[in-house]
Amino acid sequence: MEIRKGISSVVFVVIVCLCALWSSSTWAQAFSYSHAPDLPSTLSPSEKQSIQSYSLTVFKNALSKNGIDLTPATNTLSNSADVLINLIRDENNEDSYYWITPLFAFECGNNVRCTPNAGSQATTIAVSYIALSKSEGSADIAERMSELIAQYKGSDNFTLLASAIRDELKASFPATILTFGTLSLAGELHANTDNLWVIADIVPLFSEVGERGKLKGIAADLVRDILDEMTLKQNILSAPWERIAKEAMTKSNVLVFSVIRTSERESVFHWVTPVSRNLHGLYGIDKPYFESFANVPKNFRVGTLLEDYRYNVAIEHGFKVKAYDSWQALVDALINNEIDTIFGSQGAIDFGCNPKQFKCETITLSSKYDISTAYLALSKKDTCVLVLEKLKLAAAGVKMSDKFNEQLSSWSDMVSQEYGIAHHTEHGVVHLWNPN
Question: I need a labelling partner for 434 at 20 to 30 A (CA). Which of 16, 28, 124, 252 fits?
Fold first, then answer.
């Protein structure tokens, strides 16, 4: 499945999309952390110390086996750290960080900032998070951190750890309760999901209409399993992307899939969990490999889809560009030497090339351009951030379940046998290229 980018003009085009390179080595590194000075003054020094110790333990336990090295920030200023622990999420810092996971909820006011859209309870609250500073490449790191912590929050070890600190805090805050993986000193938290609207675009193999109008495909299976995990009975609807984008920008609690994550969409969507990834680049026959687009000869004739974002990218890089109306037409043009390379993905090549007519394996990557990730996403407008957390916890549980992994394995076998599409899976995410 290939995707044209843009929030209002995005159109899904035929099969196989969405997948991108993922490896723990791409994000294994050291991060500095600091405890944000945001805890309420109503906490005693010993309670603050216990909260800080608990929060750091949650973080370290979740990441301990995944190549992350956490070190205290050497600078005393908290904003010098990569990661801030127990940072209150508010309207002023909302866009400055990736919000990895919520830790605590407090009554706000009295110099404790309120968190917008933090639940349907009568009491306004402040929610503290583990937050990662935004920088180039940190979105993928934030995604994986969030996923690992969500998995850890589903474990018995987490429940024991959280129960101990809950019982300690109850002496001063008797309403303290653990909900959505978050310790609330303000009593029970509420996140209404009854009006959740679940909607998908039709994408072959991922979400397509089956018998009696029911959606089928691995993305539809994933979302259906997540809804079951949350004991929600909502139907999964389908609509053209233009309609989906409009609804997501204007309504709350719109759960959509699969949506390519771009910088333009950060203000529109919360990102629940990745569905698939795609590696985009130039593909040619008997062409040398170039480390970057800057090294590719400008006299290369590059083929793209009509009205595809890559047409403009190729023009901007100075290539001679020709546009075609299908991947089949692009592959034919490459074979007939009308173009030197196709600007697309391995999945697009597999879909456009007929192995009965041509040795498709001779079409190989000449230069990488970028990696895109498609998500199950939740509309941001007026949507409770705790709904997002409920979905993340459910998604983490589903991706670790035997049921979904059996579904994923069966789907993978079918894609290989019936379509011959190069792919592999990792962490419950489809990667449409060979792992080698």
Answer: 28
CATH, residue 240: 3.40.190.10
Domain contains 407: no
Residue 74 has which token pair? Answer: 């050497």
Whether residue 423 sits in one domain with residue 304: yes
**Alpha-carbon span 162 to 103, nearest angstrom:** 10
What's the mean pLDDT in 97-117?
A: 93
* 213 alpha-carbon distance from chain centroid: 27
**Burial state string for 315-331 with b = 16 or more CB within 10 A and e = fewer than 16:** eebebebebbeebebbb
Residue with tokens 């370290």: 60
Q: Are residues 177 and 323 in the same domain?
A: yes
Q: Are residues 182 and 198 in the same domain?
A: no
Count of domains for the chain? 2
Q: What secondary structure letter does DSSP report for 207? A: B
Global pTM? 0.85
Q: At 63, list the tokens.
A: 């990441």
pLDDT tens for 205-240 read 899 998 888 899 999 999 999 999 999 989 999 998
Q: Are residues 355 and 256 in the same domain?
A: no
Contact (Cβ atoms closer than 8 angstroms) between residue 130 and residue 85: yes
121 pLDDT band, cuts 50/70/90, is low
In whole angstroms, how far apart are CA 219 and each of 15, 32, 234, 302, 375?
13, 36, 16, 32, 9
DSSP codes joined into one string, 293-337: GGGS-TT-EEEEETT-HHHHHHHHTT-EEEEESSHHHHHHHHHTT
Identify whether residues 359 and 374 lie together within a single domain.
yes
Q: Take residue 334 and report the two structure tokens written for it.
A: 């490459």
> Cα 28–63–31 angle (5° rounding)?
50
Closest to 420 (Cα-Cα) out of 364, 373, 351, 342: 351
Q: Is 63 left (phi over 0), alpha (psi -120 to 50) or beta?
A: alpha
Are 69 and 101 a contacting pair, CB within 8 Å?
no
Which residue segment(s) compose the domain that 241 sits in?
Answer: 2-22+192-272+383-400
